[in-house]
Specification:
The complex is a heterodimer. Chain A is an all-alpha fold. Chain A has one domain (2-219). Chain A contains 11 helices and 2 strands; from the N terminus they run H-H-H-H-E-E-H-H-H-H-H-H-H. Chain A has helices spanning 2-31, 38-53, 62-83, 93-115, 140-162, 164-174, 176-181, 186-211, 222-232, 237-257, 262-277; strands at residues 130-133, 136-139. In chain A, strands 1-2 form a two-stranded antiparallel ribbon. In chain A, helix 5 (140-162) packs across helix 6 and helix 5 packs antiparallel against helix 8. Chain A is globular, with a radius of gyration of 19 Å. Chain B is α/β, with parallel strands linked by helices. Chain B has one domain (4-255): 3-Layer(aba) Sandwich (Rossmann fold), CATH 3.40.50. In chain B, a hairpin with a 2-residue loop joins strand 1 (7-18) and strand 2. The longest helix of chain B has 18 residues, at 174-191. Chain B is globular. Classes of the chains: A mainly alpha, B alpha/beta. The interface between A and B is medium-sized, with 21 and 35 residues.
Chain lengths: 291, 260
């Protein structure tokens, strides 16, 4: 029964890593830039949810504050792209990486200045509720996280496989030149990728705050999500989710069965192993362009 | 070519630069409706640059481009697709991980009517039957020739007034070139598709084109009806490979039209 609890908490944190990793991959595929602020955007989404929901602040009903948060985070992603990223298009990868790292720092300090540095807890309807399954105690919050992620995965799948806008985004990410030539406005697609990445980061933050405490340096777990994206093959959306789940599952199990301290180390050992054994990641889509 | 309303595309004296390098030094041409016009020339003659200028990927420094008497120079590529200029670039730029079907649907990105799009896919698949048999496959699993056919069919999906084809014969076997050019001619004759064809393979291009332009170092050096060009001594020697002899290099210098 202990295993069931470990599995659940592993899956739940894996979902959060997976959603942040999805944001990384989405922006990378659409714009060929890595957004190192993705983890901090997640933290920001968590704080906005808390700010809207908690009785100390606005005290909105949870189900109302989530769509508002998504709206704010979506606009936030859009503005970041328009104000900052669009200026450095065509610059070196390093310039873009440094820019997004700096953005991450700014978000961290802004969040600290607005909401303070002590941990915050979300007053969600799931707090403290458990389901008793045989002898296992399963947290409602964790089940909620997993269900939301499954639902979101389904929505994203339908969006990218079935809708015109989604397929055009995929097309633009696969061959920008050809997308340009068939009349797809590639710039708009890139802005839109940032909107979706902002919303995803917001949802990941909301889920994270539903199952634990949040403070301004929470965003640093974006590094684990980055590892998840690399394990998944950086460029594959399902890979990012699976990579997140792998990292999420490794943590509680290594924390339980290995000497203390290992739970933080093992995800990176797995990362190194994957990079050595399958350098393109587990789910890489290797395409060699024919000439 | 006398009635100007029948001219789909008119390029007037355009100049274009890559940084300090002048790639087009005043190029003019006309493409009449329902015709195939071919632009011939060696590597670096400026053919691809000309195409990019027409389709809006590059903007000319000087000169004018008209699509049915409307000035289109300086307009963005996605706007020009909507106006009816479709550019099939060199090197089969397909969407590798999308299926043939999705690639064709993307070609119709600028169109709304789903039923019409579907019937057009049916139509163009009947011209390129191999696409029908590969309909659900990812484009990267197609052979080079099939990818080229997909790129052309995708270019047609936007219902262009003029189709710009950049080196469709690149890297294909003579048999495939013959097949693809045969289909292009059929599309032109049966569906009235107007084509501006850029080619190094002069023989294949002149066989299907109504008119031809020859470019050298950013200039048009020769133009006329395809039948006349095929007869021309210069074309025969330099592009069609007639009179192969040891004196060719010397003659080439004597007969060159430009001296830069």
């Amino acid at each position: 029964m202990e295993i069931l609890q470990l599995l659940l908490s592993g899956f739940a944190s894996g979902c959060v890593y997976g959603l942040i990793a999805l944001g990384f991959v989405l922006i990378y595929k659409a714009t060929e830039a890595v957004n190192f602020a993705q983890g901090d955007m997640m933290m920001f989404g968590a704080f906005i949810t808390i700010w809207l929901t908690n009785s100390d602040y606005n005290g909105l009903p949870f189900w109302l504050s989530v769509p508002i948060m998504m709206l704010i985070m979506g606009s936030f992603g859009y503005l970041i792209e328009r104000i900052f990223l669009r200026q450095v298009i065509g610059q070196s990868q390093i310039a873009i990486a440094i820019l997004t790292i700096a953005l991450g720092f700014i978000l961290r300090f802004v969040a600290g200045a607005i909401w303070g540095h002590e941990p915050h807890y979300l007053e969600s309807p799931m707090v403290g509720k458990n389901i008793y399954f045989y002898q296992a105690v399963l947290g409602m919050a964790e089940i909620f996280v997993i269900l939301v992620t499954i639902f979101l995965t389904f929505i994203l799948y339908v969006f990218f496989a079935r809708t015109k806008l989604g397929v055009s985004m995929v097309a633009a990410s696969q061959n920008q030149l050809a997308a340009f030539y068939v009349g797809i406005p590639v710039n708009k697609m890139q802005s839109f990728a940032w909107v979706i990445a902002g919303i995803l980061a917001g949802i990941a933050g909301m889920l994270f705050s539903a199952k634990g405490s949040v403070d301004p340096i929470t965003g640093l777990l974006g590094i684990k999500a980055f590892a998840a994206a690399v394990i998944g093959g950086f460029g594959s959306l399902p890979g990012a989710l699976v990579g997140g789940l792998i990292i999420g599952l490794i943590e509680p199990f290594s924390g339980r069965y290995l000497p203390s301290g290992f739970s933080h180390l093992v995800p990176y050992i797995v990362l190194v192993l994957v990079l050595i054994l399958r350098p393109h990641g587990l789910f890489s889509q290797v395409s060699i362009k024919k000439v | 070519m006398s009635d100007p309303s029948e001219i789909i595309l008119r390029v007037e004296n355009i100049e274009s630069y890559y940084g300090p390098i002048m790639a087009l030094k005043g190029v003019s041409l006309k493409v009449p409706k329902n015709s195939i016009v071919s632009v011939l020339g060696a590597n670096g003659a400026g053919k691809t640059t000309l195409m990019k200028n027409i389709s809006g990927v590059m903007d000319p420094e000087k000169g004018k481009i008209f699509l049915e008497n409307e000035a289109i120079d300086g307009a963005a590529a996605d706007i020009l697709v909507r106006k009816g200029v479709s550019h099939v670039p060199e090197g089969r730029e397909v969407f590798p991980m999308l299926s043939v079907e999705q690639n064709l649907f993307m070609g119709a990105y600028t169109r709304k009517n789903k039923a019409e799009i579907k019937s057009d896919i049916e139509l163009f698949c009947s011209y390129f039957p191999v696409l029908k048999s590969r309909y659900k496959q990812q484009a990267l699993t197609l052979s080079g020739g099939e990818q080229q056919m997909l790129a052309i069919a995708r270019g047609l999906m936007s219902k262009p007034k003029i189709l710009l084809l950049d080196e469709p014969s690149l890297g294909l076997s003579p048999k495939l070139v013959k097949e693809i050019f045969g289909i292009l001619l059929k599309l032109n004759k049966e569906k009235g598709v107007t084509i501006l064809l850029v080619e190094q393979n002069a023989k294949a291009a002149l066989n299907i084109a109504d008119f031809g332009y020859v470019m050298e170092l950013g200039r048009i050096v020769l133009h006329g009806k395809s039948s006349d060009l095929r007869e021309s001594r210069d074309i025969q020697e330099f592009y069609l490979g007639a009179n192969q002899n040891s004196q060719l290099e010397q003659k080439r210098w004597k007969n060159r039209k430009t001296w830069r």
